[in-house]
Amino acid sequence: MTWVLCGLLALVVYTHAGYPLLMAVLARWRPRALDPHEDDKAGLSIVVCARDAGAAITARLENLLACVWEGELEILVFCDGCADDTAARARALGDARVRVIESPEPRGKAAALNEAIPACRFAQVVLCDVRQRFHPEALRHLTRPLLDPDVMAVSGLLEIEPSAAGGGQGVDVYWKMERRLREWEGRYDSVIGCTGAICAIRRAAFTPLEPDTILDDVEIPMRMAVAGGRVFFEPRARAFDPQTLDPAREKARKLRTLVGNYQLIARYPRWLLPWRNRLWWQLISHKYLRLAVPWLLIGIAVCSLMAPPLPWVRALVAGQALAYACALAGLLMPRLRWKVLSIPAGFVLLQWSCLQAFFAFLRHRRDLRALWKTPARS
Questions:
Q1: Where are the alpha helices (DSSP H) in 30-161?
Q2: pTM surpassing 0.70?
Q3: How far apart are CA 78 and CA 118, in angstroms?
Q4: d(CA 279, CA 342)
């Protein structure tokens, strides 16, 4: 029982500390440099998928058109079953660089991308949403790594306002660690997935998605990486989200992401095989081991109570009790912005979302879109 307890502890420590530390070391001592030798004046297509975003589409398009870009530019606005005036407002700009594609019925983002990306005129395609705003230099930084012919996709950096709630501070810490981990992965080889709010891909490397795909921003770059391409992370390409890292909102977003991870496991089991996917170790460490952490924590709690009462085991039991008590206090008193409460609260909140996602996937795996209604992009 003691050895089992040690093994469970080792897996949790590796997932949240060991893997990031190892990736930081690899990024520093074995970085993979970019080898740019393509034309940096090529044309650029931008795809914006929108649903009932009439209140925001004009400002979003003006933001994209104002970004620095020296070559030709086009923006495709895909109106996914919009019941408002999104399409009319986009056309009202009167800019020849803006094209509108309308779908009479809502089909979901994956289906929208399947139609919009092949319709793009240029080889480089930027994918983004309506809600966020780009830094003026975002397009230039985001597409520069594509000058390396090995790079098939580039993820930018999404800046989100910190939460005002105390429990959200733990989520803030998690988000900051996640950004650093993606940067280290990109330096070493490839990042596992992109940020859907700001990413660039090669049109020729895109293959159509299943209509019910949840994590298009993970599946698209992972397909490219498995095919031999590289997925880079460029933190200088920044997008800004007006929402905050509110715990309730982050819980809903995380639930969707985690259900999407279970979908990827079921859909692409071959990605776990070293001879089929050179990023198998990163994928397991970054994505899939995190799905196991709640179960590992339950196992640690049970094994620590059943293990021989050694001094370190008793200390572990006391430490767990204190940590969960702090987490509970942080969740019940969100206005207290004490890190000793907010960080455990954020951690427990994410683990609870992970457990919910597992059972939600089992219940709705035949129709995952029944789990939620796609929110309006505005």
A1: 57-65, 86-92, 109-116, 138-143
A2: yes
A3: 12
A4: 33
Q: Domain residues of the chain, as ranges?
A: 32-252
Mean pLDDT in residue range 324-341? 82
For residue 20, what are its two tokens? 């990031």
The two tokens of residue 40 are 């940096």
The answer to whether the CB of 75 falls within 8 A of the CB of 64 is yes
Confidence band for 60, pLDDT divided at 50, 70 and 90: very high
Q: What is 32-252's CATH number, 3.30.10.20, 3.40.50.1000, 3.20.20.30, 3.90.550.10?
A: 3.90.550.10
157 residue type, one letter:
L
CB 77 within 8 A of CB 102: no
d(CA 159, CA 147): 25
**Terminal-to-terminal C-alpha distance of the chain:** 53
Name the nearest CA neighbour of 134 among 250, 40, 234.
234
Helices 216-226 and 109-116: angle between axes, nearest 10 degrees: 50
